[in-house]
Amino acid sequence: MTASISIGHPGSCQRDSVCASRNKPAGRFDGRTSHFSFLQVTAHLLTVIVISAVLTGCGPRRTKQGSSPSTDGQSTVGADSEAGSDDGPDVHRTRPTSESRAIDGRFFGYNAASIVQPVNVELMFDPALTTELAKFPVDLIRIPSGTAAQWLDWRTGRFIASPDSPFVGVSAERRPTLMSDWQSWVERSGATPVWDLNVLNSDLQDQIAMLEEAERLGMPVEFIELGNELWDPRSIYPDRFGSGGDYARAMNEWIPALQERFPTARIAVSGANLADEVFTAALGPRFNNWNHDVVSTITNADAIAIHPYWTLPNKTPPGSDINATLTSGLDHWRAFETTTLDQLPKGLEVWLTEWNQGGHFVTSGTQVWAQALSVVAVAIEQLLDPRVTMSLIHNIVDGTSNPHDIGVSTVFPSFTNGHDGTPRLARTALGHALPILFSAVPSGSRVRRLVVDGVERVGDHPGVSAVLISGKRPGALLVNLTAAAVRVATPSTLGRDAEFKAVSAQTDAQPGWVATDSVKQTSGSSASTTLLPPYSVTYISGG
């Protein structure tokens, strides 16, 4: 049986075959005694077989932008005559690669960056938000998160008054964000904090006191990030840290003290995304040499935290070019591997503590369904790379522009904040797609790439991105980036009782922002084959 529900607006481990344990590495990284390891990116060329198949009754009902879908809120249940059919010429073979990596700890999570505008602060600490988030597990939450973390006084919950602050004039209008607020959020959500320390406008003892207060309130101190984007070119940043080496030397004094007080905590230093061509061209040697200078100087760090945002070509506003939106994330990831990951030394974990599709120097942009597909496809690449041990999406709630934004607030969030007439806590495209991603890979899993043969390519990438999951909850996660429904052979390791659930929409749909746009949910048996709707995210659970 296959159920279909249309939900309207509510008002590869490619390198190492054996990958290091998530939380128990052999030792901490010491840049002064380590050498760089330049890993070669291997391009996997698949034979392209273009198959044109007409599958009746498959895929989401397509509606024009602004039209009202006739199935909003309706549920239909009927038999899928092909769901249990034998493999035929219209079925695409699935092949797991031999290399796998372990996901031994919490991997996915969010940024708590929505603490600037008053409406966002209220929503961040409204129990209604954590009720929504309870519907898909949020393992990690970055606190306080982002640029705001470098300007927030944790004792008062207000931004530091300074002419250099990008938040001048904001604090008087917003509710203070106190440690007791974070305690309530962590308790309700069940998420583990990633503590983003203020190394720009605070000192070591003050930040240790913050972490001690967190422990007193019952919040664990397991992950510590030493600042946010310290390569920032605004004058106070280079005045404080003239180079990555200067930053690393300062942090070499922080790390031993933090390790002594919190001996089980993992500690990350701040890195740069060298695949960002806008920044590498505009920001000069300080930015371009940042990672090299940091890792060659730092001692006893566990990880480096980097933010691989990507933009559309030619400074195009987010969401304006659907084809580019589908592929630009994977294009950027390929460049990020070469320019950034491959230049880091072995043994240094990579935390992606912010990432998403963004926009440089544009004043408008829109989150569309194509972005959600791109984000999940990139997340699969992150899962498959053994160097990456943490992935935190930016951000939870938004819609109102912040004074420090480079991108736009209508591109990042999973929930709307009521801005510009949108309903409060309406799910965006990401809000519909990320629950499947976040719940697919529990700690203790092993993952390997799942190759789907014969699907037409999208740009320079396979039309279906997929990962096979083994462990206590076997499954498979697949993203269909094509306009065609694709029937795939269900991996035999998932058993004859396997079932699937999928979400799909038209690529330019704007759920959360446009009242008439919807996301369709389908589910059913995956006994031998699984039908991936056009432009969909599908999870197959093992029987």
Description:
- This protein is of the alpha/beta class and 543 residues long.
- 24% of the residues lie in helices and 22% in strands.
- The chain has 13 helices and 28 strands.
- Strands 1, 3, 5, 6, 21, 22, 23, 25, 26 and 28 form a 10-stranded antiparallel sheet that branches. An 8-stranded parallel β-barrel has the order 7-8-11-12-13-15-16-17. A 3-stranded mixed sheet has the order 4-24-27, with no helix packed on it.
- Strand 16, helix 12 and strand 17 form a beta-alpha-beta unit.
- Helix 11 packs parallel to helix 12 and helix 12 runs parallel beside helix 13.
- The protein starts with a strand and ends with a strand.
- The N terminus is likely disordered.
Task: From the structure above, extract its key features.
28 strands, ten-stranded antiparallel β-sheet, 543 residues, eight-stranded parallel β-barrel, 13 helices, single chain, alpha/beta, globular
User: Number of helical segments?
Assistant: 13
- Classify the beta-strand content into a percent band: 15-25%
Counting helices, strands and paired strands, the structural category is alpha/beta
Rg computed from alpha carbons, rounded to a whole number of angstroms? 23 Å
| Helical content class | 10-25%
Largest sheet: 10 strands, antiparallel
Number of strands: 28
The average pLDDT value, as a whole number, equals 85
Distance between the termini: 16 Å
Low-confidence residue ranges = 1-26, 32-88
How would you sum up the global shape?
globular
